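Sequence in, structure out. Go.
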Amino acid sequence: MSIKPVAFTDPPSVLAAPERIHPALWRASQLASSPGLHVDTGYPAMSAQLPGGGWPLGNLIEVMIPRAGIGELQLFRPALGGLLGRPGGQGNTQLGRGGDDAGGRAGSAGGTGVRDERPIVLIQPPYIPQTAGWAGWGVAPSRLLWLQPQARPDALWAAEHILDSAAFSALILWQDTLREATLRRLQLAAQKGNTLFVLIRSLQAARQSSPAPLRLALHPARGGLQVHIVKRRGRLLEQPVPILLYPDPVDAAGPFSVESRHASLDRRASAASRAGYPLSRMAH
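Output:
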């Protein structure tokens, strides 16, 4: 019995576009395509450097910072305030309300044009979230849940189950020392839904390997941030992406530092009397 060899009709095009063989393949000189849902970053310079043109939903996004309050939450403000997702490279299909899709998974892309109104969860933030700042971003206090577990295992348990439920639009988790196996488990849990999942860690974590498809190292800069893309699906980006968080020249050049001006939105210096309450019950 003779075996007929398989002939490629157009080898050059296959080599130039390996994603035609499998979506997970890309050339080292190219920015990879990214299947699944994405949400617009709100910053064109940032979106242009991300596969899919936005923050990937249903994936672990690692954000590494030298200290809290440099603008790490402000970077995600447009996404958290809108959370209108679209399939990568396929137009602007928006996220629907939780439970609208046929599969019963909350907020999948259905082209309904309805904003995702699922809750946003913050786990172990370093400061009490400022509800007035979040309201200014378009996030109603009733949509915010704040969890402050006493032990790390409890925080990780809560994060994993929140991701697995697919009932929340966004989860922001603050943790420093995590094993790679733990990161992998969180990534697998995130892939079960379409939650915007951001893990905020110390800058020292950049030395550790991670299964996260997107890793960012942030540094404060005048008027905003310098965003170093440590890892993404695609070619290495050597230069940081400048992000202007405060377009008003007065804000950018005022007597206060970027960190102090941002602090009113990212943190509050007082200690919490009781953790775990929805933010709508807290004093503004």
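Check: The radius of gyration is 20 Å. The helical segments are 11-16, 44-47, 77-82, 131-136, 152-165, 180-190, 249-252, 258-266.
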